[in-house]
Amino acid sequence: MTAYITHLGSLFESKHCSFVKMCQHDHLMMVNQSFVRLASYWRTSQRVLRMGFFRWFGYREQERRQAYQNWAAEHPGWTYRDDRHVRKLWRDYQFLAPLKLGIGRYAFDVFEGQWRNYISKAFTFRYAVLSHNGIGSQAQVHYRSVVLMHARSTLPSLSIRRAGLLHMIGLHRNPVGSQSKEFDQKFVIQTTDPKFAGGFLNETMMQYFLQSDKIELEVKQDVLALHQPGRLQVDSIEPCLEFLSDIATLAEAASEIQYRLKRLEETNPTATEYEQISYVNDAVKPDIKQRMSAAFRAGTEAVIDEFVLEDKRLKVVKAVIKGWLQPNG
Question: Do 190 and 158 contact (CB within 8 A), yes or no?
Answer without folding.
Answer: yes
